[in-house]
Design goal:
The complex is a heterodimer.
Chain A lengths: L4 E3 L2 E5 L4 E6 L6 E7 L6 E6 L5 E4 L2 E5 L5 E6 L8 E8 L8 E2 L3 E6 L1
Chain B lengths: L3 E4 L2 E4 L4 E8 L5 E7 L6 E7 L2 E5 L6 E7 L2 E7 L7 E8 L11 E2 L3 E5 L1
Parallel strand pairs in B: 2-11
Antiparallel strand pairs in B: 1-3, 3-8, 4-5, 4-9, 5-6, 7-8, 9-10, 9-11
Classes of the chains: A mainly beta, B mainly beta.
């Protein structure tokens, strides 16, 4: 079974703090996507990473794909209450695959 | 507004009822997906349709029956469900996958299903 493990499962921090969440697998991904899901809504795509070692920035969010393409991290700088949500990583294990494997997510709560 | 609309947003049904979930996308995509999201579990892919043809069926019980009449619409017909089927059912769509890319999926807001 191809599994994606996300850690931590829950994270509660104060506004202004920095945080990192992780997505790990023993298998190699062809690509990996990060989504954020807010209560009562479906997941919304944040970024797709494809190349080992790739770093992408989206305002205060920095996404990194591991050199071996087995892991990824999401770092948020100076968190805001609007960052609260469920962060999901989803990996594809071969190119052109329609099937994504999702992690169970990190529930982030940013307190004012 | 994600371009993917799911109805109803909430559904409560008994184990003997028959109901259908509907998904409609206005993004010009030709691949559509049904996922099940349960508490504390990863999203589970149920079905994939590409150009109206079912291409994936991940060992889903026959009490769930998908239907894809065209590239813009997807249904999930429900019959004789069990309490453990209570979950959020998410529909997603994407462009058909390219040779070197995994196309992002656009999700609807889901149908919250409760089985009594």
């Amino acid at each position: 079974t191809q599994l994606l493990e996300q850690s931590p499962q829950f994270l509660s921090i104060q506004e202004g703090e920095n945080l990192t969440v992780y997505c790990n697998s023993s298998s190699v991904f062809s690509s990996l996507q990060w989504y954020r899901q807010e209560p009562g809504e479906g997941p919304v795509l944040l970024v797709t990473v494809v190349t080992g070692g790739e770093v992408k920035k989206l305002k205060r969010l920095t996404f990194q794909f591991g050199d071996a393409r087995k892991d990824s991290s999401l770092h948020i700088t100076a968190a805001q209450t609007g960052d609260t949500g469920l962060y999901l990583c989803a990996g594809a294990f071969c190119f052109a695959a329609r099937q994504l494997t999702f992690g169970s997510g990190t529930q982030l709560t940013v307190l004012p | 507004e994600t371009g993917v609309t799911q109805t109803p947003r909430h559904l409560v049904m008994g184990m003997t009822n028959k109901k259908s979930l509907k998904c409609e996308q206005h993004l010009g995509h030709n691949a559509m997906y049904w996922y099940k999201q349960s508490a504390k579990k990863p999203l589970e892919l149920m079905f994939v349709y590409n150009f109206k043809e079912q291409t994936e069926n991940n060992s889903v019980p026959s009490r769930f029956s998908p239907e894809c009449p065209n590239s813009s619409h997807l249904f999930l017909h429900l019959h004789t469900l069990q309490p453990e089927d209570s979950a959020l059912y998410l529909c997603a769509s994407s462009h058909s996958q390219g040779a070197r890319e995994n196309q992002p999926q656009h999700f609807g807001d889901g149908t919250r299903l409760s089985i009594l």
